[in-house]
Specification:
seven-stranded parallel sheet, 292 residues
Length: 292
C-alpha cells in the first residue's frame, strides 16, 4: 500500500496511499462495507488496483457487494469477504484473522459503526442492558478486538502499514440522547493516540494509526439529500482515501466538515447544546415519538 518517495517530506511509515502504484499481491480490509462509506471506499480502492477484503453481517447482502465490486472496469483483482455480527458477544476474532494470515495485508479500515439518538435516558426501563451494549460493542469492542487480532498479520508484512478508525464529530460536542453512540466513538480517537504512542516508545514495527473525524454523510442509514455539507458516500470515500495518505494522526477528511467544525468553535457550548436538544425533539415529534 505504501511506497517511498524521494520527493516527499512525509516519513516512510506515513507515505500516502494515493501516491503508490497498484500492487497485485496486496490486500486491504474494510469493515462495515455492506453499504455507505465502507462500500464506496472499498470500490474506490479496488479501482486503484488493490485487492479487497470486506466485512458485513448479512451474507446475501455482502455477496452482492462482492459481485458489484468485481464487475468494476479494469484488471480483475481479488475480492474476499467475511461475515461477523459486530454487536455479538460471540465473535471469534482469532478465527477471522487466521483465515487471512497468509495474505499481505497492509491496511485495516475500521469503518463499522452503529447507533444514534436513543429516545430515553440510559436508566429508563424501556432499555435493556443488551440494547445499550449493542452500540458499544459495534463502535468500540469490535474495532478494538479486530485490530488486536489483525495487527500480527500487518506486522508480518515487515513494512509500513496503517490501521484507520472511523470516528464521529459527535464525540466532541454535547448532544443529548447520543449517550451510547458519541462516547463509544470518542474511544476510537483516544485508542488511536495510545496505539501510536506504543509505536513511538517501544520497538517500532512501522505500523501507524489514524483517526478519521467524520461529520454527517448521506447513506443508507442517513437518507437525506446530499449537499455541500452532507456529501454522498461515494463523494466522501474519495476524501477518505486522501486522508489515509495524509500522515496525520487525527484528520477530518472532508473539507466542508472542517469548515463546520471550525465554525462551531465560535458558538457558545450552551447554545450549541440547546440547538441539538431541540433538533432531537423535533425529530422524534415528526416520527410520532416522545423523548423523556
Amino acid at each position: 500500500m505504501y511506497c517511498s518517495s524521494t520527493t516527499s517530506n512525509i516519513p516512510e511509515r506515513y507515505t500516502g496511499l494515493v501516491l503508490c502504484p497498484p500492487i497485485s499481491q496486496l490486500h486491504l480490509v474494510i469493515t462495515g462495507a455492506s453499504d455507505g462509506i465502507g462500500k464506496e471506499t472499498a470500490k474506490e480502492l479496488y479501482r486503484k488496483g488493490f485487492n479487497i477484503i470486506i466485512h458485513g453481517r448479512n451474507e446475501v447482502k455482502i455477496r452482492k457487494v462482492v459481485d458489484e465490486i468485481a464487475a468494476l472496469p479494469g484488471p480483475s483483482r481479488d475480492v474476499k469477504y467475511f461475515i461477523a455480527p459486530a454487536d455479538s458477544a460471540d465473535v471469534d476474532f482469532e478465527k477471522i484473522a487466521k483465515q487471512f494470515e497468509h495474505l499481505n495485508i497492509t491496511l485495516l479500515v475500521n469503518n463499522v459503526g452503529r447507533g444514534g439518538v436513543i429516545p430515553d435516558r440510559i436508566d429508563s426501563k424501556n432499555h435493556t442492558d443488551a440494547d445499550l451494549l449493542d452500540d458499544i460493542r459495534v463502535n468500540m469492542l469490535f474495532p478494538f478486538y479486530l485490530t488486536r487480532y489483525f495487527l500480527p498479520i500487518l506486522r508480518k508484512h515487515n513494512g509500513p502499514a496503517l490501521v484507520a478508525f472511523v470516528g464521529s464529530i459527535s464525540a466532541n460536542i454535547s448532544v443529548p440522547r447520543l449517550t451510547t453512540y458519541a462516547p463509544s466513538k470518542a474511544f476510537l480517537a483516544q485508542l488511536t493516540r495510545c496505539l501510536n504512542a506504543d509505536e513511538r516508545w517501544w520497538t517500532p514495527t512501522k505500523i501507524s494509526f489514524i483517526h478519521l473525524h467524520v461529520g454527517a454523510v448521506s447513506s443508507a442509514s442517513y437518507k437525506e439529500q446530499p449537499s455541500l455539507f452532507l456529501p454522498s458516500s461515494e463523494r466522501f470515500s474519495k476524501w477518505v482515501i486522501r486522508a489515509l495518505g495524509s500522515g496525520k494522526e487525527n484528520i477530518m477528511p472532508y473539507p466542508p466538515h472542517l469548515v463546520q467544525s471550525l465554525g462551531l468553535k465560535f458558538v457558545p457550548s450552551g447554545m450549541l447544546e440547546a440547538f441539538a436538544a431541540e433538533t432531537v425533539k423535533r425529530q422524534y415529534a415528526s416520527n410520532g415519538k416522545k423523548t423523556e
